[in-house]
Amino acid sequence: MRQIAPPLERVIHELGKLPSIGRKTAQRLAFHLLKMPVDEVASLGQSILELRDQIGFCERCFNLADQPLCPICSDGGRDASLICVVEEATNLMAIERTGAYRGLYHVLGGALSPLKDVGPDELSIRELILRLQAESVQELILATNPNVEGEATAVYIARLLANNEISISRLAQGLPAGGELEYTDDLTLRRALEDRRNF
Description:
By secondary structure, this protein is α/β, with parallel strands linked by helices. The chain has helices at 6-15, 23-35, 38-54, 71-74, 89-98, 125-134, 148-160, 186-194, and strands at residues 56-57, 64-65, 79-86, 103-107, 139-142, 167-170.
């Protein structure tokens, strides 16, 4: 005997394919959609379709964009002498939220990961090198994630540019605000000591 109507089950199944959405959360979302006004559900569905149809990659930095250039690359007020290299557009958004950076970006589309068959050719590293040759960049900030893949990617890019005159920097890594030394892992504590600055 079936317990859930097939249309509801299909929505639960589709929502469950999203990252971090398990069956229970998908079910809660599906029931919430049933309670929403029809026009709001239609608007949600339309915006999802438009997302897939209208969003692509910036021709310059590979950020998400609905035009040939993303809003950041189109902004003449940004400092074109700085390029911050990130793995994904979500990393770019996190840096932008801080309001502390006014340069440009380059989105790699991931990180080197031999176990996942992600090599340099699967990332936009070649495009980054070509961009550095064509633009007058003074500093490249490597803002890859502080994990094995991110570190490997940063080291790979730094080695490719070893004979270049561009200054290469890496985001400082260390203690989180409000953290306690007692509960900090050894690697984080070591990096905090190595990246210490004058007070």
